[in-house]
UniProtKB/TrEMBL annotation:
<keyword id="KW-0460">Magnesium</keyword>
<keyword id="KW-0813">Transport</keyword>
<comment type="similarity">
    <text>Belongs to the PEP-utilizing enzyme family.</text>
</comment>
<keyword id="KW-0963">Cytoplasm</keyword>
<protein>
    <recommendedName>
        <fullName>Phosphoenolpyruvate-protein phosphotransferase</fullName>
        <ecNumber>2.7.3.9</ecNumber>
    </recommendedName>
</protein>
<keyword id="KW-0808">Transferase</keyword>
<feature type="domain" description="PEP-utilising enzyme C-terminal">
    <location>
        <begin position="5"/>
        <end position="293"/>
    </location>
</feature>
<keyword id="KW-0598">Phosphotransferase system</keyword>
<keyword id="KW-0762">Sugar transport</keyword>
<dbReference type="GO" id="GO:0008965">
    <property type="term" value="F:phosphoenolpyruvate-protein phosphotransferase activity"/>
</dbReference>
<keyword id="KW-0479">Metal-binding</keyword>
<keyword id="KW-0418">Kinase</keyword>
<comment type="function">
    <text>General (non sugar-specific) component of the phosphoenolpyruvate-dependent sugar phosphotransferase system (sugar PTS). This major carbohydrate active-transport system catalyzes the phosphorylation of incoming sugar substrates concomitantly with their translocation across the cell membrane. Enzyme I transfers the phosphoryl group from phosphoenolpyruvate (PEP) to the phosphoryl carrier protein (HPr).</text>
</comment>
Length: 325
């Protein structure tokens, strides 16, 4: 099976009825760029930049970050490199950050909240990204947004970073695609309000499931309740995809759901055309895509979205996956 999968590395991710699907890779460190390149992915859909900030005693400088982003951008040779700004807090708290330990870290100062609370740290990253984008196709996306004002504040920091660079005579690429992560239910429900401000959105299903269902994504005691096909989760994902496409913008899923072959036809049937996943999943997912007829899956997914009965959803999911990939 391995030999057979590797034979589709170079062919496009296209459904049987000819829809082009974009499969991208998730990476955590600059040195993972080789895995992304070898995976058969068309680019990087999620670079979890905060991993560069962990396991060290000091904050990486703007120049150090610039070198790292530049290396990734160059290695990808013009293919997209989607860098998520640091998503620290919650489960990832570096030694050099001293915001105290909250009772409820998952509901505390994480993601964009922490970036906005530490504007100098945030702007150093944005400046590094703007400079590195001269060397490749970098996209920037903001994690853990909750509502439009946060997005506007993040964009104001980006505008400020550009202004600083201009004043200092430092070169950067002005036109850079900006995205919003949709991983809090409130953001999914108001995604329409984000779309004028951004070029794309990316659904972080790992957190979206956690926050929708109030189930800790890392707690084994409740892992049986962590359900990617809970009807409430499906409604939020479907709403996000539909609203974004209606506005003429691009939407991806970059949580684990995107790399789960059992979810591929479901997401395709919801209209998703961009998936970002761990590099090891790219070929298996490409295989499913190439063995899927959108005409077959769309009506079944329509029924999945109209019911709130988990048993019925489970049956319909089996039906979607009955024909092997
Ligand atoms: C997500 O929440 O789905 C996501 C992609 O981000 P992370 O897993 O890094 O929180
Ligand atoms: Mg997340």
């Amino acid at each position: 099976a391995r030999r057979k999968l590797s034979s589709i590395r170079k062919v496009s991710a296209e459904t049987r009825d000819g829809a082009q699907i974009e499969l991208l890779a998730n990476i955590e460190l600059p040195e993972h760029v080789d895995m992304a390149r070898e995976s058969g992915a068309a680019g990087i859909g999620l670079f979890r930049s905060e991993f560069m900030f962990l396991g060290r005693d000091t904050l990486p400088s703007e120049d150090e970050q610039y070198e790292a982003y530049r290396r990734v951008a160059e290695a990808m040779k013009g293919a997209p490199v989607t860098v998520r700004t640091m998503d620290l807090g919650a489960d990832k708290s570096p030694r050099w950050l001293s915001h105290g330990v909250a009772d409820n870290p998952a509901l505390g100062l994480t993601g964009i909240r922490l970036c906005l609370a530490e504007p100098l740290m945030f702007r150093a990253q944005l400046r590094a990204l703007l400079r590195a984008s001269l060397h490749g196709r970098i996209r920037i996306m903001f994690p853990m947004l909750n509502a439009l004002p946060e997005l506007k504040q993040a964009l104001a920091q980006l505008a400020y970073a550009k202004e600083e660079l201009r004043d200092e005579g430092i070169a950067f690429a002005d036109r850079i695609e900006i995205g919003a992560m949709i991983e809090i239910p409130s953001a999914a429900l108001v995604v329409g309000s984000f779309l004028k401000q951004v070029d794309f959105v990316s659904i972080g299903t790992n957190d979206l499931i956690q926050y929708t269902l109030a189930v800790d994504r890392n707690d084994d005691a409740v892992s049986h309740l962590y359900d990617p096909v809970h009807p409430a989760v499906l409604k939020l994902i479907a709403h996000t995809i539909k609203t974004t496409h209606r506005a003429g913008k691009t939407v991806a899923v970059c949580g684990e759901m995107a790399g789960d072959a059992r979810m591929t036809r479901l997401l395709l049937g919801m209209g998703l055309r961009r998936f970002s996943m761990d590099p090891v999943h790219v070929l298996p997912i490409k295989q499913v895509v190439r063995n899927t007829h959108l005409d077959d899956v769309v009506p079944v997914v329509g029924r999945m979205l109209r019911t709130e009965d988990p048993d019925k959803i489970a049956d319909l999911l089996d039906q979607l996956n009955a024909e092997p990939a």
